[in-house]
Amino acid sequence: MEVKTSLLDNMIGVGDMVLLEPLTEDSFLENLKKRFNHNEIYTYIGSVVISLNPYRSLPIYTPDKVEEYRNRNFYELSPHIYALADEAYRSLRDQDKDQCILITGESGAGKTEASKLVMSYVAAVCGKGQEVNKVKEQLLQSNPVLEAFGNAKTVRNDNSSRFGKYMDIEFDFKGDPLGGVISNYLLEKSRVVKQPRGERNFHIFYQLLSGASDDTLKKLKLERDVSKYNYLSLDSATVSGLDDAANFRTVRNAMQIVGFMEDEMQSVLELVAAVLKLGNIEFKPESRCNGMDESRIKDKNDLKEMCELLGIEQSVLERAFSYRTVEAKMEKVSTTLNVAQAYYARDALAKNLYSRLFSWLVTRINESIKAQAKTRHKVMGVLDIYGFEIFEDNSFEQFIINYCNEKLQQIFIELTLREEQEEYVREGIEWTNIEYFNNAIICGLIENNQNGILAMLDEECLRPGTVTDETFLDKLNTICADHQHFESRLSKNSKFLNDHSLPHNCFRIQHYAGKVLYRVEGFVDKNNDLLYRDLSQAMYKANHSLIKQLFPEGNPVKVNLKRPPTAGFQFKASVGTLMGNLQTKNPNYIRCIKPNDKKASHVFNESLVCHQARYLGLMENIRVRRAGYAFRQAYEPCLERYKMLCKNTWPHWKGPARQGVEVLMTDLQVPAEEFSYGRSKIFIRNPRTLFFLEEKRKQCLEDLATLIQKIYRGWKCRSHFLLLKKSQIVVASWYRRYAQQKKYQKIKHATTVVQSYTRGWQARKLLRELKYQKKCEEAVTTIAAFWHGTQVRREYRKFFRANAGKKIYNFTIQRIMQKYFLGLKSKLPSMSPIDKTWPARPYLFLDGVHAELRRIFHLWRCKKYRSQFTEEKKAVYEEKLEASELFKDKKALYPSSVRQPFKGDYLEISKNPKYQKLSSAVDEKILLADVVNKINRANGKGSPRLFVLTKKNVVLADQKTGQLKANVPLTDVASVSTSSQTDGFFALKLKEGSASAVKGDFLLSSDHLIEIVTKLHRISSMAADREKLNIDISDEFLVQFKQDKVCVKFIHGSPKNGNSVSCKRKNNRLLEVSVPASS
Length: 1079
Ligand SMILES: Nc1ncnc2c1ncn2[C@@H]1O[C@H](COP(=O)(O)OP(=O)(O)O)[C@@H](O)[C@H]1O
Ligand SMILES: [Mg+2]
Prior knowledge:
Layout: H1 25-37, E1 42-45, E2 48-52, H2 63-69, H3 81-95, E3 99-104, H4 111-125, H5 130-150, E4 151-152, E5 160-161, E6 164-171, E7 177-185, H6 190-193, H7 203-211, H8 214-219, H9 244-258, H10 262-280, E8 283-287, E9 293-297, H11 300-310, H12 314-322, E10 323-328, E11 331-336, H13 339-369, E12 378-384, H14 396-427, H15 440-447, H16 453-462, H17 469-479, E13 486-488, H18 489-494, E14 506-511, E15 514-519, H19 523-528, H20 533-540, H21 545-550, H22 567-583, E16 586-593, H23 606-615, H24 618-627, E17 631-634, H25 635-642, H26 657-668, E18 675-677, E19 681-684, H27 687-796, H28 804-826, H29 847-867, H30 871-887, H31 894-898, H32 916-921, E20 926-935, E21 942-950, E22 953-958, E23 964-969, E24 973-978, E25 985-990, E26 1002-1005, H33 1009-1022, E27 1030-1033, E28 1036-1041, E29 1044-1052, E30 1062-1067, E31 1070-1075
Parallel strand pairs: 2-16, 3-12, 3-16, 24-27, 29-31
Antiparallel strand pairs: 1-2, 4-5, 6-7, 6-12, 8-9, 10-11, 13-14, 14-15, 17-19, 18-19, 20-21, 20-26, 21-22, 22-23, 24-25, 25-26, 28-29, 30-31
Helix pairs in contact: 3-4, 4-5, 5-7, 5-9, 5-13, 7-9, 10-11, 10-13, 12-20, 14-15, 14-22, 16-17, 25-26, 30-33
The structure holds adenosine-5'-diphosphate and magnesium ion.
């Protein structure tokens, strides 16, 4: 049986007092103190949580902590309020048991904080979602609103709740919050008009004055000064650690979240302001003629402002403060109020105004947080009621508060001590009774209908005649004197005891938590809670919707002459209902303990704690727990819950449930001392056994879930499979049908095709036969016809010429030619003689014609071109042509000359005065004049000479002087020799025997060789009387020099000679001209 037992492991002291050994009050306190000093403020007594107020914030409420405690067993982790909250929430959610969290303790022990922690824990672990979060937020935010209006600083607690609060949080079946209902119990309204020393009025007054904007304050006609208001105590206007301004903003924000409209908030603040104003209204006495004093309002300014705020007519309220109307049996009597009565009326109005406003706030919040769904819901109630209070001066409020605490203690006793012990006896479990103090007797003293204190107070209040607090005390003295928990001066006196600590106007009750001395002053008034009808009617007349709502009894239509129920009566009734409500729920206790009276951290006042532990009955609680059993359950539900843990009981046990449980326990081998069998219930001693069972059950449930899952999955898969199979058959049948249909259609189609083919074939066969027959018949006819034709042609052939073919041929050719010529005409190339283009030949057979036409066309266009020439130009071209005929492809120099125009007269001799003599010697027209080199016969060197050519002569003259050197008639020139190379050498060979030949031939060199030779040739060819001049082109020729013939030989010069032509005499017979290789 392995269960986590963190309660025993690593624990400071003992986490669960039940395990404390030895159990004495000292060890109990020692343990609490030890844990407290180590910041362990929570300790268990079984499932009850003891909480010590640390008076400082501890890091144990983080979200991580929430996660840690979530869904964990109660005893698994160290004691914490979260463990209790989790346990309560889970049994609510999983076991469908309504829960209540009862938080008890003295004022300042940490009840309110604890209730907030529980709520915030539940909010953190329950469901999530937009809607749920809104509900949670509203539930949580209702706290700051109620705290602002219902809490105040007291000497015990800076944030003491001055009202009782019980909140039901409603959940749906999943455990998601749906909403809530808040019940409030008796606000301590006397605080509105008067606060004990060192205490404050309700927070909201201070929050409003310090937190509201200037604008708001102006609207509310207030000033930001606490000292200006009579109802606000000055001595602790500011509390350290309490930021009123910031809290005001928090409250406004919370009101907004809870769902208050802007105008509602405004109305609420107006009422708060009105209470403050009311406090400032003061009265003064004014003597009347009848000797009575009548009150008058001192300064009407506050009254005026208050009336403006609430929309009340000033005169109405003023009257209500001065007169009191008593109605009885159709009679109306008006009496004036004296100053004391006026003050009383004022304070009563203020108290009523405020307490009714508070109740309205609760109602309004309830409207907002009300669960919407009408479905059945589970409920978790959180009770945070005022703690037991003992002040120096205790009044009606303390009496009521302490009464309430008595009742709570009763419930605790009922459920944890009495009920439990009685149950053991009832169930026949062996049990030794544990003594404890049952406070039922005190409850009886207070609430007994015949002679209870509350009943007597009511009686006093309703009694005709003069009723005062003293008459009430007298009554108590007569009736309760013998009660062992009641003491007063008189009752003691009657026992001949003289107790000076007990003043005359007081009585003392020995509460379960201690003796409290109550002063009777104000009991009657406070119980009556009387508000003069004039005031409530004045309020009802207000032009302010909220005020009107708060004072419905002021409506003159609904005048009710019956007395309203007294405050004590009301409270008793509501406490009764509350107790009834709590008893239906599963209780979870948080018992808050105050470690010291100074609100100080780290201080553990042993006697104070001991006192609280005693009256809370904690020791008895532990004893009962130790002797008793932690857990019990009727046999049926127990069997139902755990039957899966044993084969014999699962799934059904036939037989009595008790036997089933016995079988179960034996099967699980739970040690016999761990449990007992009662008459109708099984009792389990140790929570560990329960956890063991729960753990097993959880495991088993998981296995069962797996089994169910398995079977379900199998079933699901199988149904799916069957469905698939069924579907498959349907699909297959449909498909087969479809396939067969297709196949059939195909076969049908094929048959038709085959059929058609056969038919076609047959038909064709038939057709062929028929055709053949027909052809045979035709053939016969044709043959006959041909035969006849032949016969006829044979007969007539001689009459025809077979020339049709030739005609057709000619015609075709003609057409082709025509087309060809027309085509050619349209595509003729340009007239430029150098244009080489020519359209393509269309037919091969036109090859020759095409080429010829191209030639003709070219010649023609050349002719056309030439025809544009002038005579001179013509001559030039003729000369060029002649040059071409002479030299083209024969002399390498030629190509370079083509581009040079034949200028003829390069020297302009006639114009040059230097050559005047020469020009006069040459009487004919000069065809060419140029400077040439005459090659010296002796050494091959050249000397410049003027070369002049006329129609008849060649003249050589000195270049400088122009002196004639030789004049050779052209008739004497036999031939001209040149080389085939690029040089300008030429030899003028003279006719042998002529006059000129005496000196020998001329070997010359000129840059214009081609022009000179051409011109020479041309002149000779044009002269009719001469034969044509011979032009020899050879690389080796002979030249006649005087006597000898010298051979002039042209060789390709070696590169070292450079690019110039050089001539050298090699020997007597050889002149070598070296010509650079033409590039
Ligand atoms: N768990 C806690 N952690 C820290 N401070 C606490 C805790 N409980 C109470 N207190 C302090 O004690 C003060 C009084 O607690 P409160 O719950 O108002 O007492 P009660 O409601 O019992 O009169 C709180 O204002 C807070 O300062
Ligand atoms: Mg409180």
